[in-house]
Amino acid sequence: xxxxxxxxxxxxxxxxxxxxxxxxxxxxxxxxxxxxxxxxxxxxxxxxxxxxxxxxxxxxxxxxxxxxxxxxxxxxxxxxxxxxxxxxxxxxxxxxxxxxxxxxxxxxxx
Length: 110
Known about the structure:
The protein is mostly helical. Helices cover 73% and strands 0% of the residues. The protein has helices spanning 8-23, 25-30, 36-50, 61-76, 82-108.
């Protein structure tokens, strides 16, 4: 297996990008974009496969819960329930935001 040496700042950048990618699910849902399911599925694949790269970096609760939320979104986006989709999207982006904040606070405490 390759050794991907990410710095903590690169990891934070990745989390910010992931947060944006997940937030993008909401407007795609609202627009009834025909590629929505594919987009959510690809986002799930990314989160699953990135674990190999972030192995040495903090990826506890936020990782498991975000992946679970994304799997749930794969079903919810096929339903006509804007409130549930919005809640899952915002919950997931907030969870990642909290992880970023914890990492940054840890860096500032060094």
